[in-house]
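Re: the 197-residue chain
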Amino acid sequence: MQAELQNEETGFVANIPILIQQAESKIYNRVRTPDQRSSSTGSLSIGVNTISISASGIEPIQFLIAESNFPLLKDESFIRTIFPGITGTPKYYAISAATSTATSLLLGPTPDAALSYLFRYFKSPESIVTASETWLSTVFPDVLLNACLVEGEKYDKGPKENFERYQTEFAQGMDRLIRSAETLMMKEEYRTGEVSN
């Protein structure tokens, strides 16, 4: 990125990690990729109406309790209003709280049995800034590079034609990435009936 933009300025170099993370965010906000899929398993605790998932910024895909019950995603206020002190097999869940490292799910009604659960979700994958390689950097390195160049050129306020060229190359790469990711997701759904991680 630094070599392509030919910028050795200290402020620019110091901001490269931030620019890369902004580029990754731009990509991941437009498409769901295989490295964004994850799951959590465990057992419900009798009398406890919350589950902690060790991931932040999640987007639910599927929640399964005891291999046959699929609770529906609802608003937290719905669960608190409809199920105060009521126990049974949970029929609903809500994302009730999140920190930088975990997300809490609220269940309604409160579990009355220690049933197993499987929760599938999309999460933010690790950044290439902190990992030696990522799915994106390995499978679609050109898309990541062009997204970074777009962010770098915006920061650098370089020539408009350079920005437009990087933007065009990024858009073309994103089209390929979106088609590829959608195909992978459809193949997985048709093969197993669900998205797996």
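Residues 160-192 form the longest helix (33 residues).
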